[in-house]
Amino acid sequence: MILGGVTKWDRPLIFPFPFCISCPNFIILSRGKIITLPHCPQTMLLKARLCVLLLALSWSVALLSEPVTYKAPEPKGEHYFAESFDRGTLDSWVLSKAKKDDIDEEIAKYDGKWEVEEMKDSKLPGDKGLVLKSRAKHHAISGLLLRPFVFNTKPLIVQYEVNFQTGIDCGGAYVKLLSQTPELDLDQFVDKTPYTIMFGPDKCGEDYKLHFIFRHKNPKTGEFEEKHAKKPDSDLRTYYTDKKTHLYTLVLNPDNSFEVLIDQTVVNSGNLLNDMTPAVNPPAEIEDPNDQKPEDWDERPKIQDPDAVKPEDWDEDAPAKVQDEEAVKPDGWLDDEPEYIGDPDALKPEDWDEDMDGEWEAPQVSNPACESAPGCGKWERPMIDNPNYKGKWKPPMIDNPNYQGVWKPRKISNPDFFEDLHPFRMSSFSAVGLELWSMSSDIFFDNFFITDDRNVAERWAEDGWGLKKAAEGAAEPGLMSQMVSAAEERPWLWVIYVLTVALPLILIFVFCCTGKVGWRVIESLKAAGTASEGEESPAEAAEEDEAPEKEEEEEEEQSKSDEVSSRGCGLTI
């Protein structure tokens, strides 16, 4: 058969799977004419669905990810800081030589080690980053921006990558944007060095944090106060435990709105005026610290009824429990047998000294004579609740006619009140730094980027973190490996796997590899082709033939069907 030029149906046609799929709307060309198959048996429809199932299963198993080749990201737009560490050096960074105040000399130094290297289990050969190498030590390193960032009419976007290669027990991986001051000396970078923003992950114990803190300057006093963003609603545990590289992004907008993103997904958002603790602006009024509650102020909403009198029949001395007078001793109760007896099989230890240890007594065991009896020892009636018990009488409670409510100090104007409607206009910063203590080592940092253009930041992320994500995804176990691993943990899954694979194959064989089905499709195609040329269709001829001729055709059809069955499910032309 040649598409577009069929002159004669001279050989049996058995549809392969792809042809089965289009059976309901199957179209062929015969002698330049379009012929539509007039009828598709229900069996063929079922066969088509089974074919789709088989193809989908094979495609999902065979799908393989292409290898990812690393290329160092390059800034594509205005930016203030960009560092990918692919040069392999720390030439543009400064290691702190300072010591922390108010702690032991042994741990005061910032002597934690930093290295530029690839990840231990790198999926991108050639991709290097900054690695915190030491445990239980202070680390401090910083680098200058290309120019100071000034908060005015453009947003701030800060982003960088973190990978906890060995997990994280207790420690941080946050960055500090160091304020631009005349005293800023990166050689002396310590925990008390003024910063404008602190941002990034931190974890200790089961407390998983994602910091966003900014230092706000009080316009009245000139003092700085830390403002903490609300805690994200999302569960952050996975980002600390999956040992994958995650992208942390902070976006601050001139309208005071902010967004915190992990892997380009928003996990926290809000407004600097409404969603920080403590609030940026203090309250206009405060409670008067000198106000005191009057001595006669009555805060009791309820009091005992002073006019109430205890009823004459109220017996406060009646016990809460009394013996059940209706109880009867069970038959067979052994009054003379003790509940416990000395163990007759016990022997006094050879080293027992009666002068030192006292008279030896066998340990007590349950009396075997009581095992078949309802009880042993002196029988006593059981105790039940006393129906006449009322307890100590108390007057009922009534509303207090003198109730004045809960006392509160009066409000006065807040002498420290101010209103800053633009907290986005923070202190300028000129450097980025990592000042960390960690009980875990090998924390991997990479692709620091600071800009005022979100599109530029997203392109940088796509060229850097996007490659890591693709490489890590390609290295994950395939579908078959995941299925085998799951079955090793839950052996009953093997039964489901067998049924899932075997049942469709059996049904496909039954409906695709039977001669009658294939031959009926062939006859339908022949009928369609003949009718399109104005010839008498096989169906019309069959109606005009005599009964003996029909029997001969049925025998011939069966013979051809058997021939087709022996050939299998392929396509023959």
TrEMBL record:
<dbReference type="GO" id="GO:0031966">
    <property type="term" value="C:mitochondrial membrane"/>
</dbReference>
<keyword id="KW-0496">Mitochondrion</keyword>
<dbReference type="GO" id="GO:0006457">
    <property type="term" value="P:protein folding"/>
</dbReference>
<keyword id="KW-0479">Metal-binding</keyword>
<keyword id="KW-0256">Endoplasmic reticulum</keyword>
<comment type="similarity">
    <text>Belongs to the calreticulin family.</text>
</comment>
<keyword id="KW-0832">Ubl conjugation</keyword>
<keyword id="KW-0564">Palmitate</keyword>
<keyword id="KW-0430">Lectin</keyword>
<keyword id="KW-0007">Acetylation</keyword>
<dbReference type="InterPro" id="IPR013320">
    <property type="entry name" value="ConA-like_dom_sf"/>
</dbReference>
<keyword id="KW-0143">Chaperone</keyword>
<dbReference type="GO" id="GO:0036503">
    <property type="term" value="P:ERAD pathway"/>
</dbReference>
<feature type="region of interest" description="Disordered">
    <location>
        <begin position="529"/>
        <end position="573"/>
    </location>
</feature>
<keyword id="KW-0597">Phosphoprotein</keyword>
<feature type="transmembrane region" description="Helical">
    <location>
        <begin position="492"/>
        <end position="513"/>
    </location>
</feature>
<keyword id="KW-1015">Disulfide bond</keyword>
<keyword id="KW-0449">Lipoprotein</keyword>
<dbReference type="InterPro" id="IPR009033">
    <property type="entry name" value="Calreticulin/calnexin_P_dom_sf"/>
</dbReference>
<comment type="function">
    <text>Calcium-binding protein that interacts with newly synthesized monoglucosylated glycoproteins in the endoplasmic reticulum. It may act in assisting protein assembly and/or in the retention within the ER of unassembled protein subunits. It seems to play a major role in the quality control apparatus of the ER by the retention of incorrectly folded proteins. Associated with partial T-cell antigen receptor complexes that escape the ER of immature thymocytes, it may function as a signaling complex regulating thymocyte maturation.</text>
</comment>
<feature type="compositionally biased region" description="Basic and acidic residues">
    <location>
        <begin position="290"/>
        <end position="329"/>
    </location>
</feature>
<feature type="disulfide bond">
    <location>
        <begin position="170"/>
        <end position="204"/>
    </location>
</feature>
<dbReference type="GO" id="GO:0005789">
    <property type="term" value="C:endoplasmic reticulum membrane"/>
</dbReference>
<keyword id="KW-0812">Transmembrane</keyword>
<dbReference type="GO" id="GO:0051082">
    <property type="term" value="F:unfolded protein binding"/>
</dbReference>
<dbReference type="Pfam" id="PF00262">
    <property type="entry name" value="Calreticulin"/>
</dbReference>
<keyword id="KW-0677">Repeat</keyword>
<dbReference type="InterPro" id="IPR018124">
    <property type="entry name" value="Calret/calnex_CS"/>
</dbReference>
<dbReference type="GO" id="GO:0030246">
    <property type="term" value="F:carbohydrate binding"/>
</dbReference>
<keyword id="KW-0732">Signal</keyword>
<dbReference type="GO" id="GO:0005509">
    <property type="term" value="F:calcium ion binding"/>
</dbReference>
<protein>
    <recommendedName>
        <fullName>Calnexin</fullName>
    </recommendedName>
</protein>
<keyword id="KW-0472">Membrane</keyword>
<keyword id="KW-0106">Calcium</keyword>
<dbReference type="GO" id="GO:0033162">
    <property type="term" value="C:melanosome membrane"/>
</dbReference>
<feature type="region of interest" description="Disordered">
    <location>
        <begin position="273"/>
        <end position="340"/>
    </location>
</feature>
<feature type="compositionally biased region" description="Acidic residues">
    <location>
        <begin position="533"/>
        <end position="557"/>
    </location>
</feature>
<dbReference type="InterPro" id="IPR001580">
    <property type="entry name" value="Calret/calnex"/>
</dbReference>
<feature type="region of interest" description="Disordered">
    <location>
        <begin position="355"/>
        <end position="378"/>
    </location>
</feature>
<keyword id="KW-1133">Transmembrane helix</keyword>
